[in-house]
Amino acid sequence: MEFHKSLVVRIVSVILLLQAVAYYAIASRSEKIPFMAPLADFPRSFAGWTLDGEFPIEKEVADVLKADDTLNRIYANPGRSAGVSMFIAYFKTQRYGQSPHSPKNCLPGSGWQAKEDRTVPVTVQGSTTPILINEYVIARGEQESVVLYWYQSHSRVVAHELDAKMWLVADAIRYHRSDTALVRVISPVTNSDRAAAERSAKDFVRDAYPHVVEQLPR
């Protein structure tokens, strides 16, 4: 237990140090803010998936999130028993402390409990190697869902929060940019078939990923 606590303290210390370095790197020079079309322009249908619902972010949530643009939709596919939700939060700058909130922190606050947490590869179009993203199985009562998420910056996929902070420092120094996005996909488990929910989530990521790359600044 003491070792675990010590490890957590070291990780948090590294993150805080990276944030401080990134802040200095960004604040000490002019920052380039890339142009991005509104997330509302994200395709409403692709590869058999069609828009089945679109929900604005509640003001209380938006005030905490502080994202510059968001997308919150449900997509349906005739070959799937349940729809898949997609959430994107885009931050054009992290100069003033805005940054993505990890679903590992947000979802438990909504009453969901973590059951599994791992990194998984997903083969996507346009990449010679699979992208590595987070898979997070959550439960609330008898409900269960499979969550896939990652951070997207300049066509780069980053799974872990610490890696995202390291890239923030590097990009601030090299490119004078600190923009990033959190992409999250949730597939509910139906009929106790978690494997089917996982397949739906991964298939959706596979089909949506080229459009994510096209939508976000590169």
Task: Give a short synopsis of this structure.
By secondary structure, the chain is of the alpha+beta class.
Task: Provide a descriptive summary of the structure in words.
This protein is α+β, with helices and mostly antiparallel strands. It has one domain. 35% of the residues lie in helices and 31% in strands. It contains 5 helices and 9 strands, in the order H-E-E-H-E-E-H-E-E-E-E-H-E-H. The chain has helices at 2-27, 59-65, 103-109, 161-175, 194-215; strands spanning 45-46, 49-54, 69-76, 84-91, 113-122, 131-140, 143-153, 156-158, 180-188. Helix 1 (2-27) packs parallel to helix 4. The N and C termini lie far apart (43 Å). 31% of the residues are buried.
